[in-house]
Amino acid sequence: MNSEKNVLLEVRNLRVEFKVKAKQPLVAVDDVSFDVLEGETFGLVGESGSGKTTIGRTIIRIHEATSGQIRYRGEQINGSIPGELDRDITKKIQMIFQDPMASLNERAKIDYIVSEGLYNTKQFINEEDRRRKVADALVEVGLLPEFASRFPHEFSGGQRQRIGVARALAIQPEFIIADEPISALDVSIRAQVLNLLAKLQNELGLTYLFIAHDLSVVRFITDRVAVIHQGKIVELADTEDLFENPLHPYTQSLLSAIPLPDPIEEKKKVLKVYDPGVHDYALYKPKWVEITQGHFVLGSTPEIAEYKKHV
Description:
Strand order of the largest sheet: 6-7-8-3-9-10-12-11
CATH superfamily: P-loop containing nucleotide triphosphate hydrolases
Structural class: alpha/beta
CATH architecture: 3-Layer(aba) Sandwich
Number of strands: 12
Largest sheet: 8 strands, mixed
Shape: globular
Low-confidence stretches: none
CATH topology: Rossmann fold
């Protein structure tokens, strides 16, 4: 972990449960802890249903944390908090949603959609100021100000996702949770949106929590990555360190599934299938251990000893 940067977000022992009728609660997130540093892009990676989106939505207070703490700049933001802090967090933390087709109100013009945050936080002096902020947000994401008078159905998927980014930017947040922002887009458009996010980060000093299942994308855009499986983080490291030296069997299986650009090499590739049964936690309970500086992994005492042989 880069100690020169300030910690912006702290997640400690986060647990999120959902009530299921006449059944035991469903545990979506189980004892998760990590930090996000100011100015970095922190990746959260896992398969569908692993709990990564739930974590993002709990940070932004869409879901309620069952237990644990979420702190933003040292202040706890989960649970019951003062109204003023709630409004402040709404200004500072925004979310880009996964599906650009579903996340925009089809009946509203782009002017209103991009203004939603401004209306909620009352961050404009008058109508002229609001329209100027909408135009500025659209220009920042590479769209024309006159698009404000149109409806979502008039735009392509890539343009709609840019509108989603503009909506998040309009109230000038510090921290953006990007929940699989390119997974619903055509391959040709994905690079454009990723480059846009990187450009905005450099220009505006943004911090990202980038949620994804595509590891090849994660390698391109993130500084550090946490790998999550069934609600638990199993490995966390600097991005290149994780790709060069994955320790946990689940991480290895995810990396083995990345398609190779060379068709000959792709045919030779051996997929690693993760079997949770390889862990014997009956005698040794798993612990969260720092194997090398900034490289953490979840494992039993014998597993940790084995992992240390590979660093």
